[in-house]
Amino acid sequence: MALKDITLGQYFPGNSLVHKLDPRTKLIAVVIYIVALFLAKWFVTYAIMFCLLALSIAVSKVPVRSILRGMKPVLFIAIFTAILNLFYTPGTHVLVKIWVLTITMEGVFQAFFMVVRIMMLIAGTFLLTYTTSPILLTDGLESLMNPLKKIRVPVHELSMMMSIALRFIPTLIEETDKIMSAQRARGADFESGNLIQRAKALIPLLVPLFISAFRRADELAVAMECRCYHGGEGRTRLRQLKYQARDYMVLAFFLAVAVGVGVLAHIGL
């Protein structure tokens, strides 16, 4: 897996309906999507969720190749989860029994649905960052968490930290790729040997990476201080968030799908 396959935190500028939606709408829609995805139980409900995801990707006009490439880093986790569910899910229809390992029909279905759920969950959350700029994502998070200010929760600071963390993921990945290329040109080998040897080979990579990350953090702090940044107090925004008719329609559609999936899952579909 190449580092360029990690696309979390990247933003694809566009003029689609998904890009134009209020960031709060997209955040709430993602939460509803996740809840509905966990409510899905069988083929019919998972098919509905897949159609919803496919429709969202098609409307957003984000390249499908970029979404698939971004899911490569979690492929190992999905496969490992599938193996655990395959061998440790009890059932009545035994297919294969090898020593203490037993594969049942229920385990096969559980492993399949678990992999589908993980991949669809990752794709749906990636679509949020692909279609929402870090600034709008910060404003949306801060607006949704605004009631927490009454109990003295630093809402603005939390939103800013989350958006900066997402924004710097692609930057750190690019920096890591440059350092690895430079060390490979000097004879470093990151791919041969056992697991322990590979881990030791990463130490010369981590030191300059941490130095670069701290340097960028210091530069960002100095830049924010030079612009008289003092948190959210008295801060104005170039673009004021305001719900429009399309936002209410999208939320109603997602909520209707979630309710429908919950009802179908309750009757065993």
From TrEMBL:
Cell inner membrane among keywords: no
Gene Ontology MF terms: transmembrane transporter activity
InterPro entries in the record: ABC/ECF_trnsptr_transmembrane, ECF_transporter_component, EcfT
Membrane topology type: Multi-pass membrane protein
Family according to the record: Belongs to the energy-coupling factor EcfT family.
UniProt-listed PANTHER family: SLL0384 PROTEIN (PTHR34857)
The name this protein goes by in its record: Energy-coupling factor transporter transmembrane protein EcfT
